[in-house]
C-alpha cells in the first residue's frame, strides 16, 4: 500500500475530526459569509508526485479555494431556487460517503430497501397514492428527462411501436405541449432526440404563466387523435404560477396524452394548508418531477421522479447484463433511471424527514412563504421598484421602476455587495429580478438586510 495512504488509514479518526471541525466552523459562519463571490483568479499549482496528505490538502483548500466559494447554503442566497442543508441532511450526506453504497441492485445490501422507505415517505409528503412508483435522480433536469422519456415510450405504445427498441424514427413526430415550460424541458427534448422544435407553447391566461386550458384543448383537438405529451407546471420558475392540474387531467377523457407535471419546488405547497389547493390533481399525473435540493433542504444533488407506469420505466432504462439478473416484477433501481451507478441519495433525505417529520418541513415552507411576502410588500411600497407579478408562494419577481433596463446594472451591484444574490429574468418581455426563498436558515432579519440593500441601490 502507498505509504501515505497506509499512514492515513491509521489516522482516519483524527483526520475526520479535523474536517468535522473545519466544516462546523464554515457552517456556523454562513450568515456572515459573503453571499456571492464572483469567479476569481486563483493561482494554480501542479499535481505533486507523492501528494501532500489530507491535513495539508485541507489547509491548501482553505487558503486558496475556500475564500472564493459563495455562501449559497446561507440565509440570504436567494438566487435560482436553492435550499440549504439541514443539520440532519448533512449527517446523512456524510454517512453516504462513509458507507459508499451503490443502491442500484438489491443483491448485496439493504440499501435498496432503505431507499424505498425514503421514497414512500416522499410520496406521502406530497399526497401521492401508492400507484406512483418513485426513483432518485440527480436534479429537476434529470427528473424531467425521465418523465419525458416515459411519455415517449407511452406514445409508442399507443401507436404499436416500442421506441426503446426501434428508435424514435419509428415513432415519428411527438408534439410536447406546455404553457410555460422550464428550460430543462427543452434541454431534455434535445437529449432524447425529440427535438426542441417539437415543443408547442400554448397560450397562457392573461397576466399569468398558467396555461389556458381551453387553448390546450384546442391544440389537442388539432392533433386528430395522435398522442402527445403535455407538460403542466406546479410552480413556474418566475412567478410560481400553477396550472389547473385537475382540469388538464380531465382532458384525457377526450384526448390521448401523457401528463407530466413539473413540480420541482411547487410540490411543497402540499405541506401548507393555505396553499395545498394549488397542487390539487397532482396525483392524477402520469409522471412528476420534484427537486429535493430545493425546498427539502438536502445537499446537492438530489431529486425524485414519480410515475404510475414503472413498467414503461423499465422498458426504457433496463440494463441488460448477466451479473444484474432478470428484471422481474419489481425491477432494481439500475433498470429505472439513466444512471447505472450513483450515490445513496436516500440517506440525506431519510435523515431530514426522520429528524424533523412533516411538521418540521412544513414549518420551513410556511416561513419561507411569509418571508417572500414580507419582501414583496416592501418592494410594492417602494417607489424604486415594481412587482412584475403577485407573490403567490416563495418567489418575488420585480423590476426597477421607471427603467427596467437598469436591472442589469442593479443586479451587478447586488452581487458585488456580497449581501445577497438574486437571479435575473425576463417576464412578459420585461427584464426583472427573482428573489427565491427556500432556505431553512432565512429569517426576518435577513429580509430586512436584503430590503435595506435594495433601498440603497434604488436611489
Automatic annotation (TrEMBL):
One of its GO terms (molecular function) is pyridoxal phosphate binding. SUPFAM superfamilies: PLP-dependent transferases (SSF53383). Its cofactor is pyridoxal 5'-phosphate. Coiled coil: none annotated. GO terms for biological process: carboxylic acid metabolic process. Signal peptide: none annotated. Keywords: Decarboxylase, Lyase, Pyridoxal phosphate. The modification N6-(pyridoxal phosphate)lysine is found at residue 294. It holds the Pfam family Pyridoxal_deC. Belongs to the group II decarboxylase family. This is Pyridoxal-dependent decarboxylase.
